[in-house]
From TrEMBL:
<feature type="active site" description="Proton acceptor">
    <location>
        <position position="732"/>
    </location>
</feature>
<feature type="binding site">
    <location>
        <position position="208"/>
    </location>
    <ligand>
        <name>Zn(2+)</name>
    </ligand>
</feature>
<dbReference type="InterPro" id="IPR015940">
    <property type="entry name" value="UBA"/>
</dbReference>
<keyword id="KW-0479">Metal-binding</keyword>
<dbReference type="InterPro" id="IPR018200">
    <property type="entry name" value="USP_CS"/>
</dbReference>
<dbReference type="Pfam" id="PF02148">
    <property type="entry name" value="zf-UBP"/>
</dbReference>
<dbReference type="InterPro" id="IPR001607">
    <property type="entry name" value="Znf_UBP"/>
</dbReference>
<dbReference type="GO" id="GO:0005829">
    <property type="term" value="C:cytosol"/>
</dbReference>
<dbReference type="Pfam" id="PF00627">
    <property type="entry name" value="UBA"/>
</dbReference>
<dbReference type="InterPro" id="IPR041432">
    <property type="entry name" value="UBP13_Znf-UBP_var"/>
</dbReference>
<dbReference type="InterPro" id="IPR001394">
    <property type="entry name" value="Peptidase_C19_UCH"/>
</dbReference>
<feature type="binding site">
    <location>
        <position position="185"/>
    </location>
    <ligand>
        <name>substrate</name>
    </ligand>
</feature>
<dbReference type="InterPro" id="IPR028889">
    <property type="entry name" value="USP"/>
</dbReference>
<feature type="binding site">
    <location>
        <position position="195"/>
    </location>
    <ligand>
        <name>Zn(2+)</name>
    </ligand>
</feature>
<dbReference type="InterPro" id="IPR013083">
    <property type="entry name" value="Znf_RING/FYVE/PHD"/>
</dbReference>
<feature type="domain" description="UBP-type">
    <location>
        <begin position="151"/>
        <end position="260"/>
    </location>
</feature>
<dbReference type="Pfam" id="PF00443">
    <property type="entry name" value="UCH"/>
</dbReference>
Amino acid sequence: MGCTHVAAANLSKPTLADSVYREDCTQCFDSIDDSAGLDVCLKCFNGGCAGDRNHAKLHSSTRRHPLVLNIRRTRKRVVRDEPPPKMSKLAIAAETEADRYDTALTVKCLECGIDDIDKSDPTIAATVDAIMKANTFSRKEEVKAWEQELTSCEHILTLQQGEPQPIESQDLGHCSKCDLKENLWLCLECGALGCGRAQFGGVGGNSHALAHSQESSHGVAVKLGSITPEGNADVYCYTCDDERVDEDLGTHLANWGIILAERQKTEKSLTEMQIEQNLRWEFSMTTEDGKKLTPLFGPGLTGLKNLGNSCYLNSIIQCLFDMPSFQQRYGGGVENPPDAPIPAEDLETQLLKLGDGLLSGRYSKPDSDVLVSEHSPEVPHQKGLQPSMLKHLIGRGHAEFSTMRQQDAFEFLQHLIKLITRSKHAAGLSDPTQAMRFVVEQRLQCLGCKKVRYSSTEQDSIFIDVPIEKVPAEDGQEPKYKPVSLKDCLDNFTAPETVELTCSGCGSKDGFTKRQLFKTFPEALVVNARKMAVVNWVPIKVDVPVLVGDEPFALDSYLSKGQQPDEEVLPEEGAAAANPVFVPNAEALAMLEGMGFPRVRCEKALHATGNSTADAAMEWLFGHMDDPDIDMPINLGGGDTYTADPEKLAMLESMGLGGPRATKALQETNGDVERAIEWLFSHPDDEGEIEQAANAGEDVNKVAEAGSSAMPANFQLQSIACHKGTSIHTGHYVAFIRKKLGDEVSWVLFNDEKVVKVIDVEEMKKFAYVYFFKRV
């Protein structure tokens, strides 16, 4: 007897707006490459594994969608006789799936148990064909990996050049302001020739081209040594401060007597230098004598595939899922996943999926697509998990993390912590980020009357400014910097300083001494090391070695003693603040406001950067100008009722989504209307009751403080997210994590999908950007 569900299926083809999950299961990382294949729902296009976990059957029974398309893919066997060709551009070679794989398709009914339904049946044929032709979820969400998309700009399109005047060849030989003969940039507006900025790899530069642009307001320049006869070249717009494309480059150069056909490329382009910079990380995959480090496999030793500039995500995720709190929350398996309407769009489901993928060891095995031969006898690295769904979910609605651009790993960590903390899906379960929380106490003392004021701020990390001192470098060598100890950085972080404030008690304008210390310590202390220097007016990241030993060390001396019996407290200004308050660094606040930033943005930036310096806050502000909540006051989780933006509430009400549910949706999504709409549709049973920090009449001060003040406070370096490059928005991130391998403890390098044991981690510590210390 045939399946009775086909005739009544009422199937439709996926539209451009639909996501088709035909690569891996939405609830685990089993995929079309497994022996059982993947079952794609013919009704809603959800992907479910068909093997021992059988999430496809779970989806079918809960959603009443019995018909599925089973997709099984096998690799066409190609022996790797030669090493892969050297990468020459920021792109992935165009190779079709048909060139690499054989694919088998079967239509099944999971309710009837029939697995050989005729896929040419008119009722289902069009849907099957459309599923296979549709872009996969990852392809739809991720544009071409690594391919830099450069565009033109208004300054190039409206370029006004001076009178045609051929430039003598001898005048193109060196900078007009100095003797540099390479890294020369020609102003396309007036023909002035100046040297560029110093570049990675020892390329010299004194920024005379930039100085010319600032003096003349001429924005567009071309790098002479990068011009090819085909018309390719590095074109930079100093007004936009970005690399651009000039479609009329030949015409613009001819104005100065430079003929494209006569030019020869003599220097590396900016893209080539970036590739070379990234490829240098391959050196860390070998020992001192040049031998390749042996790949590791097993539970907790699973790599993550680079989705195109996603190494910032991979490095932070590996460090987080090494923490016990994350392993306890998300490492319990995926046999009973949350009942989410759309698993791919549920944060809890995707974090459980990732926890299973990283910790179980199920996917930590050599890449079967690479065959060992006499020419390549080494064990292949892993294929790596592809966290496409999680990356899309975390980045949704975010101006930066939704793109394919490289991002600041520490800012990503803060964003992810915020999303996890807000997630109410797993009610009653512990918040894994709570292990990272602690309280910093600030003490202000008037220099006049000597009265004091204490204030506390809950944080999940600290910023430390690393002292930068150059040491003499040999000719042609990259600059080197004097090593500093972690203790020096912590001493600076907690050092007393004088701030200019007027005392509310005695009226003195002599100022205050200010000092911040730990009131409590977390189980996992996250430290962001800021290693920034200004070179030729441009802030760049420099590699200052921060000396951190492998042995435990004490932080007891950085614990605040609190108010002392002989100290007199300054009276509160106005009503006493019963709720948690954030007292911004007054000096940094004044500097930021003097630059023209609104006060609410200044306070938010100082809060996000640990209330440290104006420079750190300004850097944060420039990276968060487009945040939807940038002008909303800081929400410290006090007892006050949440007040939604009336304009945003009106927008939701106009769509028929008003009432208490709309208010809660805006609160849960930090005021982002688009995400609030998605939240409302994914939480149909939520009645909109907003949980307050404390019940009516209850003193909010009774809420337990984060962290612990118990002594001793001993910490040990557990993992580091390292960065190599001159900017946190370029270059490459990897993670080093202390792991127990058999009977020994060793450092392990997670370089995207590559996981290897490291013999010497000391050299790599100087590239550390985010430290994770565990309390021991």
